[in-house]
Design a protein that fits this description.
It is a single chain. With 66 residues, the chain is mainly α. It has one domain. 89% of the residues lie in helices and 0% in strands. It has two helices and no strands. The chain has helices at residues 3-32, 37-65. α1 packs antiparallel against α2 (37-65). The longest helix is centred in the N-terminal third of the chain and has 30 residues, at 3-32. The chain starts with a helix and ends with a helix.
């Protein structure tokens, strides 16, 4: 592995950890507040689509560059 590949892998792992922390914070806020089901569903859908788009972009970029 080259340095650039290790750096890219570390970057994506760090951002995945950040997404995990965001997930935990949002879950805590939604559970402590009186948020209706539709509101929770909307929040999780937006969060999931954002994470999925970011991960898909990274995977596509890795395949196109190799």
């Amino acid at each position: 592995m080259t340095f650039e590949q290790v750096e890219t892998l570390g970057f994506y792992l760090a951002l995945s950890g950040l997404f995990l922390l965001i997930f935990l914070a949002i879950r805590d806020v939604l559970n402590s507040g009186k948020v209706p089901f539709f509101g929770k569903l909307a929040v999780w859908l937006v969060l999931f689509l954002g994470c999925f788009g970011f991960l898909a972009k990274g995977i596509i970029q890795v395949f196109l560059e190799s």
